[in-house]
Write a structure and sequence with these properties.
0% of the residues lie in helices and 50% in strands. The chain has no helices and 23 strands. The strands form 6 sheets. Strands 13, 16, 18, 19, 20 and 22 form a 6-stranded antiparallel sheet that branches. Strands 2-10-9-5-6 form a 5-stranded mixed sheet, with no helix packed on it. Strands 14-15-23-17-21 form a 5-stranded antiparallel sheet, with no helix packed on it. β11 and β12 form a beta hairpin. The radius of gyration is 22 Å and the shape is globular.
């Protein structure tokens, strides 16, 4: 097992883990598994587990087997964003990364390596903004099931095929009169200016009531996970087109000192008599300067 580096800047870099299991014997072997899971990765600080890769994964519950001929290998990869189980960045320290083959008779055996987490270097005057979208899966295409996205986080959501582009979009308000949220975090830097662009449409039920607001907010957090401030423009039904997508955009202003993470959140707030929903697609979170 290996990592792509030995030292990582917290809030800027992620750990890319590669785990290779090989049959070094002279005979064919068969590895048997209780579920669809084949490996697992764990990060520990002073012997205490702070992150486990499988916590955020979905595995089929069917048993399985893998057969390896002499000299044959299988490669697995994973990425750790240096956040702990609570979603906060880990401390500045050394961490042991363990890789497990979870086959029967191997579940408690592991190989390991050590990494060092350091503070993120502050951008210097004249440094250029990172290029591209800071979000993963901006089109909200990856879903575990009809109500649970894989990359984004959220509640009271529905996977809709009425998208602006791609196959899917996210629909807020699966239960029309209950709050909904769709969110994703990104690493940002103080002193920068960021822009959010997204497409939204109201899904109108003929003859029914539209009574809700949608907030497209960004919450700013420091390196310890403490809340610093937020930007939260509010959109009402009158400003969101019925049954067609429209583009919206806003900027953050200069990011306050000490901020290292921005949590982009679409918050759907209906009243009890609301019958309509809002679809979100093609979200961009980018550095302007």
């Amino acid at each position: 097992m290996s990592t792509d580096q030995r030292t990582y800047q917290r809030g800027r870099e992620s750990v890319k883990i590669t785990f290779i299991k090989c049959n070094v014997s002279s005979s064919t072997i068969t590895l048997r598994y209780n579920t669809g899971q084949r490996v697992d990765f764990v990060a520990l600080r002073d012997g205490r587990e702070v992150w486990r890769w499988s916590d955020d994964q979905f595995f089929t519950q069917a048993t399985g087997a893998v057969t390896l001929r002499p000299g044959e290998c299988e490669t697995y990869t994973a990425t750790w964003d240096l956040r702990n189980k609570q979603g906060n960045y880990v401390a500045i320290d050394s961490f042991q990364i363990r890789g497990y083959n979870v086959a029967r008779n191997f579940r408690d055996k592991f190989v390991s390596t050590t990494i060092r987490v350091t503070r993120r270097e502050r951008p210097r005057p004249g440094d250029e903004c990172p290029e591209g979208n800071l979000l993963d899966d901006p089109g909200i295409e990856r879903w575990r099931n009809s109500t649970t996205p894989i990359v984004w986080n959220g509640e009271n959501l529905f996977r809709t095929t009425i998208s602006r582009s791609g196959q899917y979009a996210g629909e807020l308000g699966a239960t029309h009169n209950q709050p909904a949220i769709l969110s994703q975090s990104a690493n940002i830097a103080s002193g920068r200016l960021y822009r959010v662009t997204f497409w939204a449409r109201e899904n109108v039920q003929p003859g029914r009531t539209a009574d809700f607001t949608v907030e497209a907010e960004i919450r700013f957090y420091n390196e310890r996970g403490g809340f610093v401030s937020r930007v939260d423009p509010v959109f009402r039904p009158q400003s969101i087109p019925n049954n067609r997508y429209q583009q919206y955009s806003f900027t953050t202003g200069l990011i306050p000192a000490g901020v290292e993470r921005g949590d982009l959140r679409f918050v759907f707030r209906p009243r009890s008599n609301n019958d309509n929903t809002v679809k979100i697609d093609d979200v961009i979170f980018e550095c302007v300067r």
